[in-house]
Write a structure and sequence with these properties.
single chain, alpha+beta, 3-stranded antiparallel β-sheet, 3 helices
């Protein structure tokens, strides 16, 4: 006989007992079973958008439309689309066991080098502050064409995107937006 003890958020509690007697001959022992929600890429990014925009760290940010289905971007409401926060589900390489997710702040403009020089000091400081908080963010002054970024690569040893990965990515994105 199984008896459900109730809903405990991401887990359920169950008692196991003998079904041959009405009185338990062996004390019932509770068992906690973790319920794991699994996402496909689209649902994972949709959930990132939903949960992040509901968080206080997203104040003043909106979705920055992108044609890429493996990326979600956020920018200031009236801000430049080339200055944005990004969660990027990188394509899995054949040699990789798991997956890589980039959480970053991107500066993607090629002109206005004077503005970029001023931003360089700010971005470097942001990366240092995040490392002090035990987040492994790096500053890359030259990335891609003429771009810059503060980023971390969240590597997972599985191909499945679940609620644990979602929570880890959200905590890094919130940390990034809270210091920048």
């Amino acid at each position: 006989m199984l008896k459900n003890m109730g809903d405990f958020g991401g887990a359920i509690g169950i008692f196991f007992a003998s079904n041959k007697k009405c009185v338990l001959s062996v004390p019932a022992t509770p068992l906690s079973i973790k319920i794991r929600r699994v996402f496909d890429n689209h649902d994972f990014l949709t959930e990132i958008k939903r949960k992040f925009l509901a968080a206080k760290e997203s104040k003043g940010l909106v979705i920055n439309p992108t044609p890429h289905q493996h990326i979600v971007q956020f920018k200031k409401k009236d801000g430049n689309q080339f200055l944005h926060y990004e969660v990027w589900l990188r394509k899995k390489k054949k040699t990789e066991i798991g997956r890589t997710i980039e959480i970053a702040f991107h500066v993607e403009f090629t002109k206005a080098h004077e503005r970029k020089k001023k931003l360089s000091k700010v971005l470097s400081k942001i990366a240092r502050e995040l490392r002090k908080k035990k987040f492994n963010f790096k500053y890359e002054a030259k990335w891609g064409k003429h771009w810059s970024r503060v980023y971390t690569l969240h590597k997972i040893n599985q191909t499945v995107l679940d609620d644990t990965v979602l929570d880890d990515v959200l905590s890094k994105l919130k940390a990034l937006t809270s210091v920048s």
